[in-house]
Amino acid sequence: KMAADTSVEILQKVLENEILQTTKVVEEHLDAEMQKLDQMDEDELECLKQRRLEALKKAQQQKQEWLSKGHGEYREIPSERDFFQEVKESKNVVCHFYRDTTFRCQIMDKHLTALAKKHVETKFLKLNAEKSPFLCERLRIKVIPTLALVKDGKTQDYVVGFTDLGNTDDFTTETLEWRLGCADIINYSGNLMDPPFQSQKKFGTSFTKLDKKTIRGKKYDSDSDDD
Fold this sequence. Notes:
Number of domains: 2
Radius of gyration: 23 Å
CATH class of the largest domain: Alpha Beta
Largest sheet: 5 strands, mixed
CATH architecture of the largest domain: 3-Layer(aba) Sandwich
Oligomer: single chain
């Protein structure tokens, strides 16, 4: 027991030291920034302020442009023809191929609705697979639900079933967000090397680095009886 207590104490000291070091680095960085600001003259400060305002204005204009193209909400498109038009006008598109009779599509809907509001930089769509046989054939969609991740008009990756999401119906919105971040289809602010699965030990290492070809091959095999 004493040995265990000692190792806990050592670990605590190491952690405390780490925290102190990190705090010191942050403080030094802040001090340097403050010093830089103190040494600036009025013209430089005005210039900095203008640049900041320009950047904010540009970001706001970009957001308005996205919203005008149907970003910011998760919506259904009526036909295959609409799919081509939608992906042509947006850089990043997530399209959910669903079927009314598949319960897991409703689970996917719930998470995509939340992510569409959060990630305005990406367009989130859904398309009834039964009404789009040509697209399903062309994109080789065999499992429902499947998300097609389209970048610059080209389908770059697929999320097939729930295999990449911890193999559970109870995956979190954060888990799907992480998976879309791995495909660089959204601006992901978390750590891609740290997937937010419920059971980290079981799933944490399997999907940290995504190799598209092998993942796609594996997914079709393992999820084929999911739909």
